[in-house]
# Entry
Amino acid sequence: MENTTLQPDFDPSSQPLDAEAIRRKRKAQGQRACEPCRQRKVRCSYETPCQTCLSRGHPELCVYEAPLKRVQIRVASNHAAAAAEETENSTPVGSELSDIHRKLGLLETAVLEIQQSIGQLTATMGRLATSDLRGQALDTAAGQLGTGAQLEGIYTNADMTGGTETVYLGARSVPAMAMELSKGRDNAGDVLRNIVLPMFGLDNETATYPFLDLWGLPHGSPVRIQQLCAILPKDADCLEYFRYYRDTAHVIFPAIIDIDHFESDLTSFLILRDSDDLGLVADEEGKQEVYGKNLHWLGLLFAALASGCQCSALSRKERQLTSQVYVCCAYECLRIVNYLSHSTPFDIQNLLILGNVISNSMNAGVAWSLLGLTIRLAQSLGLHQVAPASVAPEVRVQRGNIWWQIVWQDSLLSIIYDRAPPTTDVLTAQRNSLLEQNNLSYADSMRTLCILGLDILRSRANNSGATPQFMQLLEYRDKLRDIVDRSSSHLQNPRSCRSMRDRLEYWNLLLHRSFVTAELCRPVLSRAKSNDSIAETLKQTCIDSLTDTVEAWLGLQKITRFAVYSWAGLHRALSSSLLLGLLGEGATNPRVRRLLDEFIAIMVDIMSGLDLMDVGGPIARSVEALQRLRMFEERREQKQTMAGQQQGIEEDGWMQYSSSSSEGSTPFLLRGTEGTSPQSLVQSVLWGHGYTM
# Structure
């Protein structure tokens, strides 16, 4: 029976195998490249389709078939097997011709499909090209442009993009225009969906995942997801870290839009987890769920745990390591769901929290780069535009709030680096409302502050190198002051605070508003001393705002230790303290002297017993510079008291000393820096450029 089964396919004893046949068999077994790459003798990436076939524009030809003789031996009949054997024993030219004929057949099939598609598109365009229809279309478009009507973008659905999430296309994009023109044109919309959109790279369903793991388990494998869930802490720790996030980090920067709903989902998640059943399921779209929640939600949970851990009372090393583990888990969830191609609002909130956590770990530069990616993903979802009326009202509000949080984070980081902000779209209706309404909440006050901060940065970028216009600076200063006047009572006076949350909101708003005001007026400090009363007013405003910034950070530090770990707040306090020290305000202003002494004492206490690598170079350099500046001021005061001499003549707009004073009376930080702006010296101290301890 066994011989009967094998005989029709191939009988090794029917004819001798020559050396050429053995060589061909050995090559067939070792073949790994696709057919086109093997024939061209070019590099193959061994994907389906491979990168070479994609770049050459023929992915449909990328096949990984065994040599033709083996296929015929397995599936052909007796007659076909004999024909195949004859072909294999023929000259090599015959084998090559057979391959060429097969590829030509594939090419003919592909060409026919393209011709059919082009024919359908041509027929559609032909109907549109008739005089009446074409005239109507052109008249409509001309009317819209002529009247200045606002064109609307489109939110594509799964049928258009082949994906399962919404993708936003701008109103001026070619696909959006094509879809608009195809409305009411028979099957034109279907043709455009099937042909035009994939041409613009919108068919993300077939995109190759860019973060494949070449060494471990596949990212979507049940074992890998099970290992990921095993890292989740116990229920008590999980709730504790979340409580730290909700009561501290979320109050300062509310990245999770609906925190109450998220907490309810967390409770349900933990209840299901107690059943010890992972409950790993995949729906019809291939999305994995664990304990009733998808991996988009799970990634956001890990991000919240990482942020909450930073606010916790754990020891420094334990806090850093645990937070870093949760950051890796949150990003691993993003990798598993292929967030670059299939992002959701959950993923955007995840990235916002990760950006905050990373910046608090003294990696604000990485957070800046990550923010750029977050902005692009949010724009691809259309979060920067008002959602259409077909979207549920509560969803519209949530989408808009997510974009506001992106603008919020952009403002904090852009001002730190004095870079042009990457966010260019602020929802106009909400912007105008915020600039006019009263009794602003903390979130609305911060959003208004972010709007003005970004406006200041854009104005500075557009007028690079130009002399600051005093009237424009005064206008911005008044707008910044107006934020407090229009805010809730607890944001205007700390005596009106009724809870810990109110106090957090008061001090954090004061911190950022004062720093933005100081940043606005800072260019005036580098100007030579002038009799212009407006310039002197702006200089005093800058000094007062720097002082308020330090006081606000000290107020935050008394409420929560998280103020020490928040890089945005700590950077503002450090840079403001250094500027005040370099300006010599501690020697003449008792309030500044008291705040600087308190700030230095707290920072020295924090750094005691820690290595430089643990503290961070910028912080260590800043604190030592402040200490030396205070020592210099104390020695100068003693000399003035003993000798009765007045030293320290203000020149060039900030702090220089008369030529009659000795070199020893000049702070070591200021020697050889005549003509240098205070902000340049601050950045030199913070980042170590040209600075030696």
Q: What stands out?
A: The longest strand covers residues 154-156. Residues 222-425 form one domain. Residues 92-128 form the longest helix (37 residues). The chain has three domains: 2-113, 222-425, 474-687.
